[in-house]
Specification:
This protein is an alpha+beta fold. The protein has helices at residues 3-13, 77-91; strands at 23-25, 39-52, 60-71, 101-104, 110-114, 120-131.
């Protein structure tokens, strides 16, 4: 499983952008000719240790976490906040192939401030659960 990429693909399907254009799996990238200012980054942040599944199988129950960072255009705090709220709604209880449950750990995205080039940034944390 690749929870960060799987979540990025889900956000694309939900209409929040395009993977490798303005939605990325992996660390935040600075704006450039190839990377737009307003982007979403899905960053793998580990998760809980695997738990033995409660049946006769040898599978474990896994819980991974992915931080979703929404960066807006300079001076566009409200637009970035709206996009972060839209991402939250798209993730909460989402149906993502291969996962038994997908949840957001916050009731509202967190404003974490402006980056060093004055882009507003919001984060939320997703929990992705699967048996495997």
């Amino acid at each position: 499983m690749t929870p960060d990429l799987d979540l990025a693909n889900h956000l694309q399907t939900a209409g929040l952008g395009t993977v490798a254009t303005d939605i990325f799996a992996g660390p935040m990238k600075p704006p450039s000719a190839q990377i737009s200012q307003a982007c979403i980054f899905c960053i793998s942040t580990g998760g809980l240790p695997p738990s033995p599944y409660l049946d006769a199988s040898t599978s474990d129950y896994n819980v991974a976490t992915v931080q979703v960072l929404v960066r807006g255009d300079v001076g566009a705090y409200a637009t970035a906040q709206t996009k972060a709220n839209t991402a939250r709604a798209a993730i909460q209880r989402a149906t993502v192939a291969g996962y038994v449950a997908v949840y957001v750990r916050e009731s509202n995205p967190n404003f974490i401030g402006l980056d060093d080039t004055e882009h507003p940034m919001f984060t939320l944390n997703a929990e992705m659960q699967w048996k495997g």
